[in-house]
Structures are given as structure tokens and as C-alpha cells.
Amino acid sequence: MSFSTRARWASARRAAAIVLALMMATLTIATPATAAPKPRASLTNIDQDVMCVTCHEPLEVAQSPQAVAERSYISSLIAKGETKTQIENALVGQYGPAVLGVPKARGFNLTVYILPPALLLVGIASLAVILPRWRRRARAAAAQAAPPGPPLDPTDARRLDEELARYDG
User: Fold this and answer.
1) What does the alpha-carbon distance between residue 11 and residue 128 come to, in Å, rounded to a whole number?
2) What is the pLDDT of residues 36-75, one digit of tens each?
3) What is the pLDDT of residue 28?
4) Smallest Cα–Cα separation from 67: which of 103, 32, 91, 41?
5) Stretches in the chain below the pLDDT threshold 70
6) Which of 7, 151, 153, 157 has its CA 20 to 30 A from that of 120?
7) In the chain, what are the domain boundaries?
8) DSSP of 115-158
9) Taking the mean position of all CA atoms in its chain, how far away is CA 90?
10) Structural fold of domain 43-107
């Protein structure tokens, strides 16, 4: 392994470490350690994130009897003064996890939030490594390309012109 190859691998490892650190920082920022006072829940705020379990549509647009029942259940929980998180947990307990429009960012469901950006970053890093290699190979191949053959003999050129003229005419 040459020095330049080792240096490229080292820089790729450093870039991967930086990307991983940024992702971890993002997760840390997304889950604050101190709990701020939670705002009062509202029906319009909750039914955007909740699904009707029979229609499989967002609760805010669903018109089935089940959607009406879910809305009244949510209204009763709001009247009790529960927060959005408490209401969502009660809905999951009542109707199952299918009631949530967006999966909670815990356990295996966390991959839904981490995997797409991670794949995007891996793709960008791969292109950053592969594209310069392809360009170097293309330049080297162009430099080693065989020069064009010797020019045509004047008699061969005249004969070629005559035959082409026959096909054009």
C-alpha cells in the first residue's frame, strides 16, 4: 500500500469520524436533558400526527365513525389536562401503535430517522473518494491512447472520395 493510498484511507476515516460525531450531536440536541414546560395539547395539534385506525388516513381528514370516536376520546383527554405525549401514549394503549402517523424515535424505529441521512452521507463520501479515481483513470487512458494511424495515400483518398460520391448520388 503506497503512502498516498494510506493517506486517502486516513482522511476517509477522519471524515467518517466527523460525520458520526455530527450525527451523535444532532441526536443529543434532539433529545434535551432538561424538560421544559409542556404546552397545552390541542385537538388540531394532535390529529395531524394521529391516524384513523379503520380508514388509515390522518385523523384530521378522516370522516368515518371511528375517526369521530377517536376525536371525542382525544377531546376528553385534553379536557383532563394531559400533554400531547400522554395523549399519544393513551391512544397507543387504546388503539395500538397503528394509530400513530409517525413512529416514535425509540428502538428499531430510530432507524427510520437515522438511516436515510446516514445513507446520504455514505453516498456523498463514496462519490468524494471514487470520482477523483475515475477522473485520474480517464486522464491516464487518454494519455496512453494510440495516436491516429498514418495519413491516407493520395490514390486511396481519391478512390474513397469517388466511392462516397457514388453513394451520395
Assistant:
1) 11
2) 555 677 787 887 888 888 888 888 888 889 989 989 999 9
3) 63
4) 91
5) 1-4, 27-39, 146, 169
6) 7
7) 1-36, 43-107
8) HHHHHHHHHHHHHHHHHHHHHHHHHHHHHTSPPP-PPPPHHHHH
9) 31
10) Helicase, Ruva Protein; domain 3 (1.10.8)
